[in-house]
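lol ok so funny story. i was supposed to be doing the assay writeup but got distracted and ended up predicting the structure for this chain instead. priorities right. anyway since i did it might as well share w the group, maybe its usefull for someone
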Amino acid sequence: VKKMNIPIVGIIENMSGFKCPYCGKHIDIFKTGGGEKAARDFGVPFLGKVPIDPEIVEGGDSGVPIFLKNPESDSSKAFAGIVDNIEKNIEKKEA
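and the output, tada:
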């Protein structure tokens, strides 16, 4: 990416944990922290984590994104936090 001079807005960690639909407990199915480490290694902002959530897939398939269908869900809040971080980083670069 550096060789091609493509600006990086930041890194998002995908499939970061899963909320059990039965007990509500957060479970890390895969190793976590890779997104934050990559952001540090590349010197770019870490923008947030997106959990594993079947509603995200359903929203993609139906054309109704999770943040419209279920705006109070943990996944919707994760996306909102990522958008906020992107906006903050763009504002910093423009200042």
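The longest strand covers residues 46-49. The chain has four helices and four strands.
back to the writeup now i swear
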